[in-house]
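From the pipeline queue, job 12 of 40. The input is one protein chain; the requested action is below.

Action: predict structure.
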Amino acid sequence: MDAVLLLPFPDDLPKTPVELEDAQRVLLEAVPELALPGPRSRVRAALGEGMAPGGAPAPAASAPEEEFTEHDRFFGVTRGHGGPDLFLRSLLLAEDDAWQDLRTHGTSLSQDEQARLLTADRLFLGGSATAGATPPGSSAMTPAACVDRWRTGHRLFFTLLQSITVSVSCATCTTGATQQAHLARAARLSSATAAAMRFAADFDEGLYALSVRPAMTPPRVRPGFSGAQTRDHDRLVRLLHTLPQHVDRAARRSAAYTELLDALAGVYRAHVHVCSRFGGDTAPSLRMDVEEPGSSETGVQRAEHFARLRVDPLREDAE
């Protein structure tokens, strides 16, 4: 995979409804056709790819900056400081990459999953890019195509995590019906994120062991390569930890809040699905192999533990 996707640092994402509206305005003034229905093939030509990273890295969060950077590099991501609309541009380009992959290699995802996978443009910009039919199945993919899909799906996953962060951040700055609207969008984006994770793993299990897993081991990367190195997930988890403090009582009891928690649980279920599909139901993860050699816990069990750790406290605070 030669393409590299430019993403903003999490610190640069819009944090308030005003900042989000500014990002939407800037992008739609530059590319007004994005707000109109049309074929998805128009997206990349309309956006262009003339973005260049710049500036110094944002401060590291709970993982060392070198781990975040290694993770970005493996998945074909570079970080930069751009205009307010950079996260929207990156999101649309990542969606287009996924659509191109689906069109070329097919998928076993249901039509509903495909629709959820490619929905963020409409949620933020109001347009509706029609994807068209994709070939069924994905069993004929080559080892190289499987690695590309793994990376393409993860890049969309990262941009969707950013979009959830933006929506949740906006929710914490508002009240009433507006707050619930931002929570509802975050829920729909979380459903898209779960679909992106399933898409990333939508290829033959044997080819994962043959081509994908070896690519995530030394000497290509350092020992213990892990999703824990995802800086966008790191930021979202820390934001969600504070969410109950910033939503009013009515919002915590609303359908939008419940739907968000259910959708977030769906993201972690998708992670468990991927882990189980590729042997994690009987073996530890790559990181556990290094940090806890000889552990009897499987990768799936660890993933289920983190799912409860992330979502259950939010449910308790809503009661």
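Job complete. The beta strands are 5-8, 38-39, 77-80, 129-130.
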